Amino acid sequence: MATDKFSAHDYYLMDELLTGEHKLIRGTIRAWVKKEVSPVIEEACQTATTPKQWIKGLAEIGAFGPTIPAEYGGAGLDQMSYGIIMQELERGDSGLRSMASVQSSLVMYPIYSFGSEEQKRKYLPKLAKGEFMGCFGLTEPDHGSDPNGMLTNIKDKGDHYLLNGAKTWISNAPFADIAVVWAKDEEGIIRGMVVERDSEGFTTPTIKGKWSLRASVTGELVFHNVKVPKENIFPNVKGLKGPLSCLNSARYGISWGVIGAAMDCYDSALRYSKERIQFGKPIAGFQLTQKKLAEMITEITKAQLLTWRLGVLKNEDRATPAQISMAKRNNAMMALQIAREARQIHGGMGITGEYPIMRHLMNLETVITYEGTHDIHLLITGMDVTGINAFQ
Ligand code: TGC
Ligand code: FAD
Q1: Is 241-386 the same fold as 14-129?
Q2: How far apart are CA 105 and CA 245, in angstroms?
Q3: 134-232 in CATH: which number?
Q4: Which residues are catalytic, by number?
Q5: Closest approach atom of ligand 2 to CA 138
């Protein structure tokens, strides 16, 4: 079992921009990750399992729905706190952060923002406590980057809808108690709904053989004439903007989360390079290694500044979807490149579970793809600055 020697890096004294509460939250999550995640993460990834005790632990540290008001079971925290929580969780592992961000941004957020009062009261407190786990079904086998083309559909049958279709690549699907599902009605309008695990005709096969995000379980959602009670439909949103609004929240969280993974890689590479002797001196003493390390901390610092400012805008409800896309895209690639460079610095040891590098590297190949691929986010920025839509 590798020891977690992580210590954080704050090159531009960003701590001065955080409140005492932010730092307290960060310390709590960091300590929990060191105690409960680092000792088991290697084994969890090697065996492709999600330690069940994480669910209870994540609920206890307030990682499920931290921005949801207390009356619905959340912690009522600000957006900066949410980002910090995601950063600390992803420092442990992207799969762990995935579990928390799906529950918070993709399940609790839509129920809170678009749900009826009954739906909020029924589901949110249980989701906050981890008594219910949720998943989010948008992607389909033939519609990933282009969710508007979805084929999953509902038909009005009086007191209920009949749901048919399939979703794929769904985080947490195989064990989720409820699924937030997006489907087209008979007029072709996208509607959101909660589908409960025990609904007849609803199955959740596991996707096996992933080389990435191995501590996170991924599956399909298959609906064959599933009866969805009308009271399970979200009354307060129609159209693609429903699921895309949830993505704004999750992508924002990812822009913070990947900084955690990048810091873990940088921290490990810095320490290793000072300890590893070749040609009679630490490899940190060679100019080529220093170039790698100097560029890593520069990129991490730029990403920290980007997310901090985005957090301020989010708190003021002024962050645009395009600004969020820029941060998700930039920071995911930043983290992936740092993981690759850190892998080089560790030499052969970089591919072993002795260090967190290869695991982060493989995870980040998913992170740069889900919640909108690297190129989709580039085109969102392109559309924003030119006013011309490249998707049409
Ligand atoms: P378009 O015509 O541009 O827009 C349709 C309507 O949606 C509105 N809209 C948004 N609203 C809120 N937030 C956003 N980010 C929005 N982007 C667009 C838009 O204003 C419009 O509203 P209205 O009122 O006029 O109808 O839509 P399009 O079909 O051209 O698609 C645009 C595009 C490509 C940007 C979008 O489809 C997209 O983002 N595609 C990427 C798909 C994606 O990110 N999928 C993620 C699946 S979930 C996931 O990966 C979870 S991983 C979980 C984990 O484990 O952490
Ligand atoms: P495609 O859309 O087929 O894209 C393939 C390639 O084509 C990409 O490089 C893409 O950038 C490029 N491309 C597509 N369109 C264009 C264009 N217009 N211009 C230029 N290039 C383009 N989804 C959920 O709904 N819920 C989840 O919980 C969830 N969890 C996931 C967990 C994992 C581990 C993974 C891998 C995925 C998950 N996803 C989830 C799905 C994820 O959001 C999609 O994989 C992603 O949106 C890309 O869709 P796709 O894989 O179908 O790729």
Answers
A1: no
A2: 9
A3: 2.40.110.10
A4: 371
A5: 25
pLDDT-derived band at 3 (thresholds 50, 70, 90) equals confident
Residue whose Cα lies nearest atom 31 of ligand 2: it is 169
| DSSP 8-class letter at 177 | S
Ligand 1 contact via 168 beta carbon (within 6 Å): no
Q: Is 376 in the pocket of ligand 1 (CB under 6 A)?
A: yes
pTM above 0.85, yes or no: yes
Q: Are strands 277-278 and 218-229 parallel, antiparallel or unpaired?
A: unpaired
Q: What is the CATH number of domain 241-386?
A: 1.20.140.10
Ligand 2: list residues with CB < 6 Å. Answer: 102, 135-139, 144-145, 169-171, 213, 218, 366, 369-373, 375-376, 379, 391
| pLDDT, averaged across the chain | 97
Distance from C-alpha of 303 to C-alpha of 321, rounded to nearest angstrom:
17
CA of 255 to the centre of ligand 2 (A): 17
Q: Where are the domains of the chain?
A: 14-129, 134-232, 241-386
Q: What number does the ligand 1 atom closest to the CA of 97 have?
A: 56
Query: Rounded to an integer, what distance in angstroms lies between the CA atom of residue 245 and that of residue 223?
Result: 24
| Interval 312-370: pLDDT, tens | 999 999 999 999 999 999 999 999 999 999 999 999 999 999 999 999 999 999 999 99
pLDDT at 1 over 70: no
Q: Looking at the CA of 371, name the nearest ligand.
A: 1
Q: Which two tokens stand for residue 69?
A: 């008001």
Q: Which atom of ligand 1 is nearest to the CA of 239?
A: 26
The domain made up of 14-129 is a member of CATH 1.10.540.10: yes
Nearest to 177 by CA among 219, 120, 140, 134: 134
Is the CB of residue 327 less than 8 Å from the CB of residue 307? Answer: yes
Which tokens is 363 given?
């995870």
Distance 110 CA to ligand 1 centre (A): 14
Are 134 and 180 within 8 A, CB to CB?
yes
Helices (H) and strands (E) in the chain, counts: 12, 9
What's the pLDDT tens digit per position in 69-93? Answer: 999 999 999 999 999 999 999 999 9
Can you tell me the distance from the alpha carbon of 251 to that of 323, in angstroms, rounded to the nearest whole number?
10
User: Distances in Å between the alpha carbon of 384 and those of 45, 370, 376?
Assistant: 39, 21, 12
